[in-house]
Amino acid sequence: MTKHYTHEPVLPKETVDHLVTDKNGIYVDGTLGMAGHTSRIISELNKKGRVLAIDWDPEMIGLAKKRLSDQGKEATIVQGNFADIDEILPRENITKVSGVLFDLGVSSLHFDKPSRGFSFKHDGPLDMRISPENPLTAYTIINKWPYEQIEHLIRISGERFSSKITKLIVREREKNTIVSTSDLKNLIEKHFIVRQDKIHPATRTFLALRLAVNSELDNLLKGIHSATHFMAKGSRMCIITFHSLEDRIVKETFKSMVKLGGWELITKKPVKPSDEEVAGNKRARSAKLRVIERTEV
Ligand SMILES: C[S@@+](CC[C@H](N)C(=O)[O-])C[C@H]1O[C@@H](n2cnc3c(N)ncnc32)[C@H](O)[C@@H]1O
Fold this sequence. Notes:
alpha/beta, DNA polymerase, domain 1, binds S-adenosylmethionine, 7-stranded mixed sheet, Rossmann fold
């Protein structure tokens, strides 16, 4: 039986309220996912308004198309990397937009589907690619990359025990190939105490691998810069982050845009989900929404 995957959009009302300033405008949703935000943006627009939605993962595109057509809603949907917005928009004959949204990371489907290999909660291959066209997998990093490179990527994810974990990986792979998410999780669990009141000791290693496999932080920076070329006066960029590494990039980049001139920070402090939202959607607990507006072109 096929499993029915769902994904609750995070900060749905807050995001759409900040993003949509012109009901006849063109909006870019750079992270379509299951179309939760796209669907809500479409609902806000007049007939002349339009959404161009991008996702890197063809599986998400298929699900989003079905979802939107079930709701009787239309968007222009493109499979691609939001870092390439400067190539995607001209192909769609778009020169100016009224708003851009990035709801970063991966969707619940990615975590919940074992074959995608994103989560240590399921046994699956060490894959973690958002796009199947990406030549790099977590398997390659874990089994082929040198100690220094693995240690570095785990360390910058904020893992205090990066050298201990990397030593375990390198020692293990000399004896056995580390094939699955369970192999990696069990290896870490054998040498760390798992406590219910603390994050699992494999959490940061899995995050580090996902970020590296998909060049997530590079794509974020490139995506922000590419999108700015198309933003009309009064348009807004809304970015939802889920961990401090990406939030720091958004915060610092927005700050330097304001300093350069022509931009105003709309959210002096990031917008966070209410207790009520977090109670209904655990994924929302670490979400932060930051918004910037173009004041001059
Ligand atoms: C958090 S989910 C978005 C959920 C969506 N807002 C919703 O309400 O259903 C992030 C999505 O962005 C996609 N994604 C991640 N990195 C991407 C990139 N560089 N370019 C395009 N899509 C990307 C993932 O495949 C995933 O579907």
